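Predicting holo structure, fe (ii) ion bound.
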Amino acid sequence: MREFKLAPFGNLSAASVEAHLGLYKGYVEQTEAVLKQLRDATVPQAATAALTPRETLARRLSFEGNGARLHELFFEQFEAPGEGNNGTFSTAVSQRFGSFQAWQDDILELGKTRGPGWVLTCFEARSGLVDNYWIDLHEFGLPADSAVLYVVDLWEHAYWTDYGAKGRDHYMRDLLAHSNWEISAKRYQEAWRRAA
Ligand SMILES: [Fe+2]
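Done. Tokens:
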């Protein structure tokens, strides 16, 4: 489990940041519980009505595991808000969207998608493709073999308390205004290094 030093910003309150970190802890614990069961030789591999089937655990692993990892990628972006030069990341997304502003506009547009999930900016080094994706829950829609460069949590727990039911746009604008772009730039550079 990772520790994050997060200060509230925008409308986000200290209480909701604390609650969000607690929720992340739950995903880490659930991931560990699923992994423990998967490694337990006594867990039956065939589904029966009475016993937990192997398939259920496999599905739970991507839900819980991604829930933990996506929150880590998310929190990491706000530990030093506003710091960092966005030159490298800006150049990366501008190749696809035309400008850093146009990339942000697309994030805001995708963020209107109904349902709980995430907006992700991903980079596939093999093709050089940078694009934005909507991820349902934590696991549906993730592009394969891609690095995650930027993450927006759009589950209701992330904004409802401080921004209200119709506050998604305001919440996302606060996130964009307080992101440390150096984090996204490092993820982009790391993806290139790994692909080389
Ligand atoms: Fe969350």
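DSSP finds seven helices and three strands in the chain.
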